[in-house]
Each structure stands twice: as C-alpha cells, then as structure tokens.
Design brief:
single chain, 214 residues, alpha/beta, Rossmann fold, 5-stranded parallel beta sheet, 8 helices, 5 strands
Length: 214
C-alpha cells in the first residue's frame, strides 16, 4: 500500500512526515488547497512545505487538490472550521486506491470525540463510491500539542512549520497573529513546555503507527 500524509505544512502533519521519512518509509503527500483564509496563508503553507523538503533533503511527491468554498458561510470562530471531518471526507473522494492516509490531528482536538462515527461515515462513503481500500491512521492521537512543539523544537524545525490562519506580510519577522486558534494553541503549548523545562521535565511526541479505520 502507498503511504500518504495529508500535509498542510503545519506542525502535526509535518512531524508525521519527517518521522516517516527518517524511518525510511517511501512516503507521498496530498495537499488540499483553499483560499478560505486568504491567499497569503496558502503562500506561507507552500513555503513551509518547501522548507521542510529542503530540511529533509528529499523531493517528496505531492498531489494537490484545489478546493473552492463559499468563504462567507464556512468560517467558524476567528476563521476556524471543523477541518478533520472535511479532510476525511475529501480523502475518501480524492484519495488513491490501496493507500494509507496519515492525519496530523492529535488527542485533544474536537475530532476525537466523534472519531468512530466519522470513520464509519467515511467507510459508508467509500462503499457508495466503490471501495478504494483506503485506510486512515492518526499517529499523534496519544500526544499533546506540548509534546509536538517540544519534539519539533528539538529537531530544529519548529520555525519552519506554518500554522497561522491570518499571517501578515511580515510574518517571518513580526510573528503570527496570536489570535487564531492555531496561534493560541501553539503559544499555550510553548508556555506549558517552558514551565516544565524549568522544573527539569521535557516531553516528546509519541507516534503510534497502528493502521486501519480505528
């Protein structure tokens, strides 16, 4: 089976991609592009993906799917949206036959409260479309955001990942917007990590690669 990471260029999916590459897995990626949060965010995500491939010294095959949304009705709080169900549904539609898809969403996201219902729904959708033998894996489901941030910093690539929903033109110099959900989640994880480090503790992400529609 093919190993394909649903890759945004953000922290979670980037950590999974880097870990698989370092383990010697022949991995590919799929990218769902949208201008929902503005074209600048998409440009930063693209740059983040290029930075990561340069870090890995590997040109990774990337399949892009351009999506068009009615942005005035899809946005949630501060631009946030329920990405997990959308990405799973999109993967069942655009995904390749005989493939394992890795998602970066980890324990603590809203997705996990309805994980089994969503995966069951995806199975039904695949049955309607004709089974593609697609499987889903969530390697970071036992890790916290603090674990993920700390691991990426230890690897020296935390600054390469893009996760702000509303970056400005001076993004690399002036920082992120600090208001959207990804920014606030990152800052909270960073603060908690610093507290633990001052107390002699440090956490790393646990990547569990059990496969299947769990």
């Amino acid at each position: 089976m093919k190993h394909i990471v649903v890759w945004s260029g953000g922290m979670d999916s980037t950590l999974i991609l880097c870990d698989l590459v370092k383990k010697g897995v022949d991995v590919e990626t799929i990218v769902f592009e949208t201008d929902l949060f503005g074209t600048l965010k998409r440009e930063f995500e693209e740059r983040a993906r290029l930075d990561i491939m340069q870090y890995l010294k590997k040109n990774i095959r990337m399949s892009k799917v351009k999506l068009d949304f009615p942005s005035d009705r899809v946005k949630g709080y501060k631009g946030g949206m329920f990405q997990q169900p959308a990405m799973i549904a999109l993967t069942t539609v655009f995904g390749e036959h005989d493939s394992i898809y890795y998602f970066g969403y980890h324990k603590g996201d809203d997705f996990f409260s309805a994980q089994y219902k969503l995966l069951k729904a995806s199975e039904c959708l695949l049955d309607v479309m004709g089974s593609k033998n697609i499987r889903f894996s969530f390697p970071l489901r036992f890790s916290t955001k603090e674990d993920i941030v700390n691991t990426l910093e230890n690897m020296g690539i935390a600054s390469l990942c893009h996760f702000c929903e509303y970056p400005n033109t001076d993004y690399k110099m002036s920082g992120r917007c600090n208001e959207c959900t990804p920014c606030r989640t990152y800052e909270d994880a960073k603060t908690l990590g610093n507290i633990h480090k001052r107390n002699g503790m440090s956490y790393i992400a646990i990547l569990n690669y059990e496969f299947g529609n769990e």
